[in-house]
Amino acid sequence: MNIRIDIDITPDEMRKLMGLPDVEAFQRQLMDDIRERMNQGVEGYDPLKLFQPYLSSSLAGMEMIQKLMTAGLGGGAKKSAGD
Predict the structure, then answer these.
(1) Hey, how many other C-beta atoms are within 10 angstroms of the C-beta on 45?
(2) What pLDDT digit, counting tens, does each position of 20-40 carry?
(3) Which of helix, strand or coil describes residue 52?
(4) What Pfam family is a match, any one (predicted)?
(5) What are the sequence ranges of the domains in the chain?
(6) Is the N or C terminus of the chain more exposed, i.e. has fewer CB atoms within 10 Å?
(7) Eight-class DSSP state of 43
(8) Mean pLDDT of 32-52
(9) What predicted TM-score, i.e. pTM, was given to this entire model?
(10) Distance from C-alpha of 55 to C-alpha of 32, rounded to nearest angstrom
């Protein structure tokens, strides 16, 4: 048996449905901060150094999400195999 469900919603509606926070203002502030730092150090700035504070925390968060999803999918697969 195949069941197919098509959901036609906007990304904002999906974010609210999943209970995720609205990070648009944070992203806008982050980009403004990055632009300001780039303008201050136009002479030979290092982009990697500029993004370092943001990447370390973002990567840690993404790794946590990946582990949670892997655990959830792994747990679901084990249940299905046992049925």
Answers:
(1) 13
(2) 888 888 888 888 887 887 777
(3) helix
(4) DUF6489
(5) 10-44, 46-83
(6) N
(7) T
(8) 72
(9) 0.38
(10) 16
